[in-house]
Design goal:
With 333 residues, this protein is of the alpha/beta class. 47% of the residues lie in helices and 17% in strands. The chain has two domains: 224 residues, Spore Coat Polysaccharide Biosynthesis Protein SpsA, Chain A; 94 residues, no CATH class. Helix 2 links the parallel strand 1 and strand 2. The longest helix has 19 residues. It is globular, with a radius of gyration of 20 Å.
């Protein structure tokens, strides 16, 4: 840890910070997020917005913000709907900055976010990306009583530097939320294009951790909003998790396995990411475990032999949530 920190530490100043934002029918929460860009103690140098054919007032709101913004705002409206993954890829590719911060349309940034992140990159400019904690709030902005890192299970109380590949195991069981990630432009060449069937933030955090150092910043620098229409949610409360498990069933594990197969294919075929044979073996083991979990069904007595076999192979503790996942597979269809 000390050796890599000494190697990376450098006071070179970054010159441009870009914000890569995507929008789609976001009029309800968009203005509050745009305003939070103006509250930054270190203003961004540009905002790149790619709109995915919104049919509400989103474009009107963006254009009004463009007119009054103290920094350049470049708006691109897609001719046809690309979906959030390709839309973020487009926004990322259009940024000019040395640092690029992802932005959703429904969060709120705290004033010190860009200043804190830039300071980290000034000290460690060879880092691939920095990610930070976030306050979880409801759709009205009221705190839900926990943070994103509480949901992740992270207990880092000081900034932590991970060498290349050291953070990768953390990415296998968690989605490091894109709205908390700022990456260096130098890392972008290793990431594009995104795989077709995996979320952009999943790919950025996973693949980025393979080729560059990663820094975890414990400060809570976003208000991460939970609402009914978002693509990803987080909760530490068992009631919420049980309700979600009942809603999605075991098909979610089959879907996770499918996405990991896409990652595995990329690792095997992308020359920039080769040399990860041990990781590929772990991925194959995880994929097999998820496919087995996805196929669990029927009465409890029929499930027990399959679950017991996975327990003996210690896969529930290596690839899932341990005994909590066992109970889930026993009693939730």
């Amino acid at each position: 840890m000390k050796n890599i920190a000494k190697f990376l530490k450098n006071k070179e100043k970054m010159t441009i910070i870009s914000l890569a934002m995507t929008t789609y029918n976001g009029e309800r929460f968009l203005q509050e997020q745009l305003d939070s860009f103006l509250w930054q103690t270190r203003l961004p140098d540009e905002l790149v917005v790619c709109d995915d054919v919104s049919t509400d007032r989103t474009m009107e709101m963006l254009e009004k913000f463009q007119d009054r913004s103290p920094f350049p705002v470049r708006i691109f409206k897609n001719e046809q709907n690309l979906g959030f993954r390709k839309n973020f890829q487009k926004a990322l590719s259009l940024c000019h900055g040395d640092l690029i911060a992802f932005s959703d349309q429904d969060d709120v940034w705290l004033p010190e976010k860009l200043k804190e992140v830039e300071e980290v990159f000034r000290q460690y400019p060879m880092a691939g990306y920095v990610f930070h904690d976030a306050l979880v709030v409801d759709e009205n902005g009221n705190p839900r009583g926990f943070s994103l890192w509480d949901y992740y299970g992270f207990t880092f109380i000081k900034p932590r530097l991970f060498a290349p590949r050291e953070f990768t195991p953390y990415c296998l069981n968690r989605v490091i939320l894109g709205a908390t990630i700022t990456l260096s432009a130098g890392l972008r060449d290793h990431l594009l294009p995104f795989p077709d069937d995996i979320a952009h933030d999943t790919w950025v955090s996973f693949a980025g951790s393979l080729v560059r150092p990663v820094i975890a910043l414990p400060q809570k620098l976003n208000r991460y909003r939970q609402h009914a229409k978002q693509l990803f949610g987080a909760s530490v409360y068992y009631k919420d998790r049980i309700n979600l498990a009942r809603k999605v069933g075991n098909a979610c594990f089959t879907e996770q396995a499918r996405r990991l197969k896409s990652v595995l294919h990329r690792l095997a075929t992308d020359s920039r990411l080769k040399g990860n044979e041990r990781l590929m073996e772990k991925l194959m083991d995880r994929i097999e475990h998820l496919e087995i979990r996805g196929g669990i069904k029927g009465p409890v007595l029929k499930r027990i032999p399959v679950i017991f076999k996975e327990l003996l192979r210690k896969r529930y503790h290596k690839h899932s949530g341990g005994w909590r996942s066992v109970v889930r597979d026993l009693f939730i269809a």
